[in-house]
Amino acid sequence: MNLNLTGKTALVCGASRGLGYACAEALAKEGVSVLMVARREDVLQEAAERVMKVATHGAMVTYVAADITTEVGRVAVFSVQQDFDILVTNAGGPAPGDFRQWNKDTWMAAVDANMYTPIALIQTVIDGMAARGFGRIINITSGSVKAPIDVLGLSNGARSGLTGFVAGVARSDVAAKGVTINNLLPGLFDTDRLQSLTESAMQATGQSEEAIHTARKANIPVRRFGQAHEFGAMCAFLCSDLAGYITGQNILMDGGAYPGTF
What we know:
The chain is built from eight helices and seven strands. The protein has about 260 residues and is of the alpha/beta class. It folds into two domains: about 210 residues, NAD(P)-binding Rossmann-like Domain (Rossmann fold); about 35 residues, no CATH class. Strands 3-2-1-4-5-6-7 form a seven-stranded parallel beta sheet, with helices on both faces. It starts with 8 loop residues before the first strand and ends in a 9-residue tail after the last strand. InterPro entries: NAD(P)-bd_dom_sf, SDR, SDR_fam. Belongs to the short-chain dehydrogenases/reductases (SDR) family. It holds the Pfam family adh_short_C2. This is SDR family oxidoreductase.
């Protein structure tokens, strides 16, 4: 299947590990030149070197070590390159906890990272995409947007706000100009984020890692956790010409765990 992405350019956030890395890798394999962004330079540099090894059709892989959730970080990124054909937004999910313990600062940090930052990035790139007649924006959100998880209230709230925003802007005049915007909602994938949630559950319940993983897999019809490369492949497809008729959608990848019809 030819995704016709050769020669395109992409900005991928949170790209040093996990699902962000998988998206950067999948795009580079399709001949997309990728600018990878994450906070830790040592980890990011190593990740960029690995992605460069699998890049095809002369695609280049560069990186900027910055906190994309800050204005300073965004300025650093766009000082390197202003225009992109593809934007993949991604920020680490807020920590789990009891909502009774969260103050305004806690909420604002979650909203900044998981709602406002994607919106700010979209604002910066979308008009250029529309002017060129092609754009793909993928927001990595969470399966909790469809099925909220009580201890992930910060994520439930902030990411749902982003989802509402995208529902409107994806159907605005940019759609007729070749720009699509979709959200990718991961369920339980075998990433550092899953390990972090598992450690929190171990502390809260006293159960072993094996017991927690076994119980979680039992609630997933495919009886396993997702693999990052599967997520990356879906991201690359949504960025392709073949997905030009898909916009404003929340695409859930959770192994069938969500029980609803819609």
